[in-house]
Amino acid sequence: MGRIRKLQAKKTNPNLVGLIDRLLEISVKNEAKIWRDVAEMLSKSRRNQAEVNVSKLEKYLKDGEVAVVPGKVLGTGKVERPLKVAAFGFSEMARKKIETAGGKCMDILQLANENPKGSGLRIIR
Fold it and tell me: What topology does CATH give the domain 2-123?
């Protein structure tokens, strides 16, 4: 945890710093390692954060799973089935494609509050 705190100290976005703090709290409280892993990925430099196209989500996400993207979802590709995706950010096109297909876009903290144990999640980066 000390390593995450050091990385987090360099972050200037107060929303991101708050999200990382809250994910670490949820991880410890619920013994859910997945939220600590997501917090660690978000604390990396912006250049190393995930940028995932919707085509990758369509390809790797199984039915019933929820994707967690510790970064931004981009709109390249097709979405032909409803996907449930939580990310730090969405491009307008990605949000439109996911919601048009009957899916749901949410922020990571919203998902962490709904599913504190982290069951049925898949980190995609």
Answer: Ribosomal Protein L15; Chain: K; domain 2 (3.100.10)
